[in-house]
Every structure is written in C-alpha cells, then in structure tokens.
Amino acid sequence: MIKNVFVVILLLLSGCFVYLDDTPSRSSSSYSYGNVWLESPYISCSYDAYWDISDWIFEVHVDSYYGEQEVMEVGFYINNYDYQYMDYVGNGWWYRNIVSTYYDCDRYYHFDFVAADYDGFEGYYVYEW
Asked: What are the structural domain ranges in the chain?
C-alpha cells in the first residue's frame, strides 16, 4: 500500500518514476574451473518511465588462487549473446553500468558472469533475473 502511494506521489510531482525491483526470487549458481571463482553478484535495475530508460548496475567479487590481482578479465553475457566487459574497481570487485532502452527491468534475463586469470583458468556464475 505504501509503495503504491509513493508511486502516485512521484507521478504527480515529477511526471516520471523510478521502478526498483526488490523481488527476492532470483536464482543463481556458481562454477569454478581451476583457480578462479566469482562470489556475491549484485544486479539492480531502475526504470525511468518518462524517458523509457533502464539503468542497470552489475557488481561481482572475483578472486583467484594467487590473489585478486591475477584476475585478467571479467565480463558477462546477457541471454548467452551480448557480452559486456566489466571494470576493476578494487579489492576484487568488478563493476559495469548499462543505460538502455532495449534491456527493460521487467523482462527475464540470463546473465553468465565469466572471469579468467593470467594462467588461463576460468570461473562462471549464472544469474537469472
């Protein structure tokens, strides 16, 4: 009830609103092949109805047997197709922000996080939105 009142107030005051999905029904699983593993993925999406734009935030912690500095590349596939590189932000955390009119917050997506170290080992993390 409070959420609905908040949405109505936002619509009346600004002409647009932000949609934050806090549904706890997401599923995920992790796979490690060798010395690289991915942990604690965080994905959020907010929607601006006025501009029809979805703002996605992706974060994941990646570590390897020889330390976080040995991780060479981290990224993710959206629905097994569109690959997005992630940027290293420190302490093993990798980050990516996508602002899109194509990837809407209210659709189903399959995210495959992948990471590789300098020795060629890989890790995977599957996350379903």
From this structure: 17-128
